[in-house]
Amino acid sequence: MNEIDRKIYEYNNKPDAKFSGLSPYELHELIHLPFHEECPIQLQNEIDSNVLDKIPFFKLCEEFLKILKREEFIKLTPLGALPKKVMVELYAYRFITDKMIENGISKLSREQDSIAIQNAKYVCEIAKLTKKREGKLSLTKTGEKQLENRESLFKLILTTFSFDFNWAINDGYPNEPIAQYGNLFTIYCLLKFGKTENTTQFYADKYLQIFEKFLPLFNDLFDRKPEKQFSSCYEIRSFYRFTDWFGFTQTSEKKYGEISNTKATEILDKIYKFTHLKE
Fold first, then answer.
1. Which residues contact 248 (CB under 8 A, 6 or more apart)?
2. Helix (H), strand (E) at residue 12
3. Domains in the chain and their CATH numbers?
4. If you average pLDDT over every residue of the chain, what do you get?
């Protein structure tokens, strides 16, 4: 190895404070090759079924697939939505509740009244667990097979939600992969810092240090500066509608204009692990 190659190698493998202790090489693997053998974050080899029972979004998807198996097919509405009967049955499990419904402001009458249930439907379709044909929704052969292996089903749902499903459809923020792109960096930070409670701003700042290209997508909006809008977008997508849904964090109730606190749960390190962490 000549001197130039040696310096490049040292730079690429040296922990960087800007990356919260990751080296440039590790960060590249984490962003571009998630769960590749050199990625610093991996899924646990084995995940206990009792842990899966504590993961709200997984349970929601699982029960949805069980309904399809029981009914053989579900007849969708003319607009391709789930019928109210199925929505009511799934919501009754209360895996993920909706604040508007809980407060009596709205009622569960349409698919879009529960973002979580709607997202479960989308994720199962993207993962090829379900199929639509002539206005009917049913299980695929893959879906039937995956229902027999909970761990495999969970990993498929998690990776599909993390990397293939578009998080941006759930809110009015820019239709760009803010928070979703490089979401394993958020997981990395939660594994490293999440045992103590931090503000969601703490994680938003760390994410923005690396993904600053997203900030110009936000413009001044009344009294809300781009940085504040970015932090709110990151908070909603990363925590309220990802890690909280999967039981990885507990985030305090969101109040308009305020940044919340969040803390990792015991579930997080039962799902993810460091392969190597350089301090």
1. 187, 190, 264, 265, 267, 268, 271
2. helix 3-12
3. 3-32+168-274 (1.10.10), 49-165 (no CATH)
4. 94
